[in-house]
Give the backbone structure.
Amino acid sequence: MTKRKFVIDVDSVLTQTETVIHQILTKETGKDIPIAQWHQYELGGVYGVADTAIYDAFLKNEHAMFMDVAIYDGARAFLERLREEDEVHIVTARGWSPLGESMTKQYFKDHDLPYDSMTVIASSKLKGPFVREIGAYAAKDDHQDHLYSMLRELPDLKACLRDQPWNAHVTDLVRVYSFDDFLQEMGLSNTTSFTL
């Protein structure tokens, strides 16, 4: 039997990166804007600062963003469930940092998070071409542009958008609120409840 290939994002899908980003940007900008009010993915517009200021804040705090971030409850069990019969391919846009790949791999090792392959791309690139190379069956991401690019490359891909405030305006993708939701969309029975 051929294994299906699931492409899973990291930030705000497996890890609570939005919480760390909120702390960093509150400290760096002096503005405490609740995550629920992040109405767009590009946070410069939310905080009223240049995108370069956001990038500089991220670089200054990259260790916290990559290594100190909490895992959503159930993430490990979710990945283990997917790998029971299929493959998990991590595709993340953490390539904005020179340390993005090495720190992400170390984080997965430190937290015993299972996966079959990991691709770290520049934040300026879309994930579609990389997902085509993998031959993905399904994907879960919090950024609609990545999912749209995947669907252009693989029109039959089962694409699921992880619900977040910055993608609330998106209505043409399957929205999932939990790990259970994704498993149900994939037709995978589960005996354990996975929450976010």
Remarks:
- DSSP finds nine helices and six strands in the chain.
- The chain has a mean pLDDT of 94.
- The domain at 5-15+71-185 is CATH 3.40.50.1000 (Rossmann fold).
- The longest strand covers residues 87-92.
